Every structure is written in C-alpha cells, then in structure tokens.
C-alpha cells in the first residue's frame, strides 16, 4: 500500500482525499518511480474544478471523464528515484534519480508507474528533488515559447505573467540567449524577477505595458490578460506575439494578423520531450537556470496547496514534498 491524494469528483480543493491505495507495479515499458516531490500548477487547479477554455472543454472532458474523473490522482510533474523497471526498459535503471512529466498518471502519491514514452530525464546534479520537480511543466513550456518566438541575442522581449512557473523559466532562458527582458507581474514578484535576471520590471497594477509607448521584438503573454490589438501595436516590425494561454478568438485573430501583416502571432501548445529535458538540464548544470520555489506542502496538505495556488498567490512554484519515512 501507499499514500496518495485521490481525486474522485470535479470541484473545490477540499474534495481531494489523502488515502491509502494499492502500490502500482510497472508494465513492460514502464518504470516504477518512488516520488520525492511534485508540484501544484494553475493547470492542476483548473483541471480539478474543470474550468477550461470553451474550445477545449468538450474533448478534454470526454478524455478525462464526463461525470467524474477516470484518472484518480492529479499532478503534471514529479521528481523521484526509479525503484523498478519493466523488462523492455533500457534507458533507465533502478536507482536513477529522474524528473518527469506525469500527464494524469499520479504525481500526488508516494509511487507511480510511467511509460518511458513520456518525457523524463536524469535529474540535474546541482538540483534537489524539490527543485527538479518544477522543470517538466514550467521549464518545457518556457522553452517551447522561447523557441517558437525565435528569440535572439539583443532582442527586446516582454513576458506578461512572468512571476509564475513558466514565466520564471522563460525569463532565464531568454537571458541565456542574450535577450533584453522586461517582466510584467504584481509588485510582490518584481524583486524576485530582478534577482533571476530581468532587465526591467513592470507592476501591472500601476502600468499597462501596452500603453507606455515601449515596443518589443517579442511579447510572450503567459497568462492571457494583455489586450490583443494593443499588444500587436507594441511590437516592432516583424515582431512575434506568443499567446501562452490562447483563447479561440485570439487564435482566429492571430491567424488573420499573421496572414495580413508583417507581425506573427503564435499559439502552438507545448509538448514536452525528453530531449527538451536534457537541454534544460544542461542549462541548469551550467548555472544559467534555477528553480523558484514559493512554498512547500506535505502530501497530506495538497488541498491547502491547491487553495493557495488558485487564489493567485504563488511566486514561481509550489512544491508537494512526499515523505516515505512515516
């Protein structure tokens, strides 16, 4: 048996249950992971209460479960140690420290089995498990947005919603490429953003970056709150506008803008790969990226972590630490 947070119905954080369930056994193409850390993201909270954009609501609901979720344990990312491997697994061995995307397969538990077709890699040598657990979602999405925008050295980049799990990694990746980075978020997060390399910071409650007369080569809107038309006007010629949290009509307007102007709107969703994880690990081990952790909660208090995250309080990442001693 093992401890896990069980999700049986859509709704508020208090519906998450701390329970004993059966410890899984790996299939031939799977690894059994002893989980040391997971995270709570805004996406986890949206899925738990099923508050998704209308254009993806129905297909995701069919996949996850019409009446109730058929995947019983939430969590998108984790870090831990491989305890056993299936007979067809050759990439990893027992004892390997790894981080991985879990993709509805149970990060909020002491153990989980994941197929090696999912993105996973050896943990960076200079990171703890808590820190490494923040890479799969925040790191891979940030890398995806930076690559899609084709960020180059000396370009001026603005990241809206820079203080969260994706934005903190995007800021650092852009800086590693030599870009000039402006970060937009609430006042409480600005000092942290400066500490990880932001060249300029803007408190969105006091200044609207689309109205201050500044222009940029790339705008990455992680949170989906910037004005579409004014953001386009805030781009240089041949500028790129990345919709990190795309809505249907934003994608339609983006397609039209890309077709009729010299500015490009990008709304492609990220898909993590093991190769991306290796690239991020190299940046981390070279000292160019670090994780930002706001709070840590024990597994039994996962509902409290969800409550904290969905109220918009978090700076960087919120981590679930998983104890195997008690």
How would you characterize this protein structure?
With 326 residues, the protein is an alpha/beta fold. It contains 10 helices and 15 strands. Strands 3, 4, 5, 6, 7, 14 and 15 form a 7-stranded mixed β-sheet that branches. A 6-stranded parallel β-sheet has the order 10-9-8-11-12-13. The relative contact order is 0.16. The mean pLDDT is 94.
What class, by secondary structure content?
A: alpha/beta
Average pLDDT metric? 94
The tally of strands reads: 15
Strand content: 25-35%
Largest sheet: 7 strands, mixed
Our Rg estimate from Cα atoms comes to 20 Å
Give start-end ranges of low-pLDDT stretches: none
State the end-to-end distance. Answer: 13 Å
Number of helices: 10
Q: Could you say which overall geometry the principal axes of the C-alpha atoms support?
A: globular
Helix content: 25-40%
N-to-C series of helices and strands: EEEHHEEEEHHEHEHEEHEHEHEHE
């Amino acid at each position: 048996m093992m401890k896990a947070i069980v999700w049986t119905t859509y709704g508020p954080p208090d519906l998450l249950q701390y329970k004993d369930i059966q410890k899984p056994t790996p299939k031939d193409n799977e690894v059994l992971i002893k989980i040391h850390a997971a995270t709570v993201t805004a996406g986890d909270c949206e899925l738990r209460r099923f508050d998704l954009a209308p254009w993806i609501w129905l297909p995701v609901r069919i996949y996850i479960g019409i009446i109730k979720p058929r995947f019983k344990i939430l969590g998108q990312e984790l870090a831990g140690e491989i305890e056993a491997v299936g007979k067809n697994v050759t990439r990893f061995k027992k004892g390997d420290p790894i981080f991985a995307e879990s993709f509805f397969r149970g990060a909020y538990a002491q153990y989980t089995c994941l197929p090696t077709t999912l993105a996973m890699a050896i943990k960076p040598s200079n990171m703890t498990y808590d820190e490494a657990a923040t890479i799969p979602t925040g790191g891979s999405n940030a890398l995806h947005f930076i690559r899609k925008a084709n960020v180059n050295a000396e370009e001026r980049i603005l990241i809206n919603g820079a203080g969260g799990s994706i934005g903190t990694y995007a800021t650092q990746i852009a800086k590693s490429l030599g870009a000039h980075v402006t970060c937009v978020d609430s006042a409480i997060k600005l000092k942290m953003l400066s500490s990880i390399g932001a060249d300029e910071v803007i408190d969105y409650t006091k200044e609207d970056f689309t109205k201050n007369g500044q222009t940029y080569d790339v705008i990455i809107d992680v949170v989906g709150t910037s004005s579409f038309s004014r953001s386009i006007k805030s781009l240089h010629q041949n500028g790129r506008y990345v919709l990190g949290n795309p809505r249907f009509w934003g994608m339609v307007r983006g397609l039209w803008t890309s077709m009729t102007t010299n500015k490009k709107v990008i709304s492609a969703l990220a898909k993590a790969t093991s190769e991306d994880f290796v690239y991020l690990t190299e940046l981390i081990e070279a000292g160019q990226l670090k994780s930002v952790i706001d709070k840590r909660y024990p597994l039994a208090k996962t509902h409290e972590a969800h409550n904290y995250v969905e109220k918009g309080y978090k700076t960087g990442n919120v981590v679930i630490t998983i104890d195997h001693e008690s």
